[in-house]
Design brief:
about 100 residues, mainly alpha, about 75% helix
């Protein structure tokens, strides 16, 4: 009889769902680019958590491997996005997403 140390699949799914919904709500409500990037990170962390929970439930290491890939992707995303935010702030002196439409042309 295996001893279960994890809180369970349902609790992990619930936590990942709550985190994803909070990140999505923050992404849709805020107009600050930096806050929006943080919300995208919350969403990617929720997806990574779901990989780990599923891997732990099925008893293999695939979830942890996918977690490493998601963290690597998130690091690359943050580096590129923050470089774009710095360029945007340098040109417009604001991080309001509504000002981004003025860069068309």
């Amino acid at each position: 009889m295996p001893i279960e140390t994890a809180p369970g699949l349902e609790a992990g799914i619930l936590l990942a769902s709550i985190l994803f919904c909070l990140g999505l709500a923050g992404l849709m409500m805020r107009r600050n680019i930096i806050f929006m990037l943080m919300c995208v990170e919350i969403c990617t962390n929720a997806a990574a958590l779901m990989f780990v929970v599923a891997g732990a439930h099925w008893g293999n290491a695939d979830g942890q491997v996918m977690f490493v890939f998601v963290v690597t992707l998130a690091a690359a995303e943050v580096a590129i996005a923050l470089a774009l935010v710095l360029q945007f702030y340098h040109r417009k002196h604001t991080v309001d997403i509504d000002q981004l439409n003025e860069l068309r042309g």
